[in-house]
Amino acid sequence: MVMPAARTEWTVDMLDDLPEDGNRYEVIDGELFVTPAPSDVHQLIVTELVARLHFYLQRSVVARVLTSPSDVRRPDRERNRVQPDVFVVKLTDGRRPPYPFDLTDLVLVVEVVSPNHSQYDYQTKRELYLPNGVVEYWIVDPEARTFARWRDATDRGELLTETIMWQPDGLDSPLVIDVPRFFDDALG
User: Fold this and answer.
1) Where are the domains of the chain?
2) What are the phi and psi torsion angles at 180 (to 5°)?
3) Of 6, 122, 140, 179, which alpha carbon lies 20 to 30 A from 47's?
4) Strands 175-178 and 163-166
């Protein structure tokens, strides 16, 4: 379960001092969020999605797919650091932007929801990503076998059960994911 910590003004430097205990520590506007180590189902979904995105993007000079742990920050870099499950960073002249990445560097962010902390993904992170430059946001729900998608901060979102398509600027054809087959391939 994701829980905000009792202390209210956390910084990225304070995160760096926390123990390496398998938990994911993120800070949003000075508030600490702690997520336990991901389950095997979570990791199988992440692996399948990364493989598909990598294959789709591998010959392009448009973007690259990455996974956490990998830091993403917003302009207040001392009070904001998140680690999306899967994200795609846009390239400029075939090169990645400087690390740690800024939210405005991301063209797609994907979180795999856990039943114990769905509000964190559906509300807290969506409200962070979309108004701060992330082009598209997906939430993959392994239990419901769905993808939820938002394309900007005003988008009410859509729940996809059959097909999801994604095409970043600069690519001629979309990535098309057959949702039932995706879950079958990922989870067996």
Assistant:
1) 38-187
2) -60, -40
3) 122
4) antiparallel
The C-alpha R_g of the chain, in whole angstroms, comes to 16
Helices 179-187 & 40-57, crossing angle to 10 degrees? 120
| CA within 13 Å, CB half, 102 | 11
- In this prediction the pTM is 0.88
| Phi, psi (rounded to 5 degrees) for 98 | -65, 145
pLDDT, one tens digit per residue, over 103-134 is: 999 999 999 997 777 888 888 889 989 998 89
**CB 100: neighbour CB atoms within 10 A?**
13
At residue 40, the 3 state secondary structure works out as helix
Q: What is the mean pLDDT of the chain?
A: 89
Q: Please state which architecture CATH assigns to domain 38-187.
A: Alpha-Beta Complex (3.90)
Q: For residue 8, what pLDDT is reported?
A: 65
CB contact set of 123 (below 8 Å; sequence gap of 6+): none
Q: What are phi and psi of 25, to 5 degrees?
A: -110, 125
Contact between 138 and 108 under an 8 Å Cβ cutoff? The reply is: yes
- DSSP class of residue 71? -
